[in-house]
Amino acid sequence: MLGAARRALARVNRWIEAVLVPLCGLTIAMLVVVCLTVAARLTGLSAPWTEKLILVLLPALAFLAAPVAYRRRANVALDMLPDALPPRAAMVLRLGVHLAVALILAIGLDLTLRKVGIDPGAWGRGLSALTGIDLTSIRPFRAPIKIPVLNIEWRWVYMVMPVMLSLTLLMVLEQILGTLDHLIAPTRAAPLPRRGGDTPARGLGE
Questions:
Q1: pTM of the predicted model as reported, rounded to 2 decimal places
Q2: Shortest CA distance to 151 belongs to which of 57, 56, 61?
Q3: Residue 147's beta-bridge partner residues?
């Protein structure tokens, strides 16, 4: 049952990853804009739009890369404790970390939805009952605050956050299902993804 659910979710996540990886190529665009900003300052040219564009690209790229990095286990981590534990204990620890990350992402999703003016509804009420954290006092942006020069509302920039947090939650759920599958039936479970930025191991979710 867990294996089937994990395979189905892995297919969805592979499709999401295939869409996000090319978008992460915007990093090159940001590097070009940063070089233009430095050049403008050194030469005395007026290019205020470059700094404002960096303000948009930097948070957008950070959140665009988050789902892919989590699924590939390419995020920065300290492995000293898991490496020192027996395999099953390390797996339990990994499960606990995934659950903690899922909870943090869920709270972040609730918060960012409220900030962009979307009522999380039953999601927010359930999260409040589970954690005891009341986020109802969070209010959306009261006025359409626009980015100078670019004339773009900050609200549209912040929309990247709830979307990417939702996608990262899907990646975390895949990791949780995979870890549970290994704990319950380690002999038949599909291999977990390798660390270090490699693509998931062959057989993952297949």
A1: 0.80
A2: 56
A3: 152
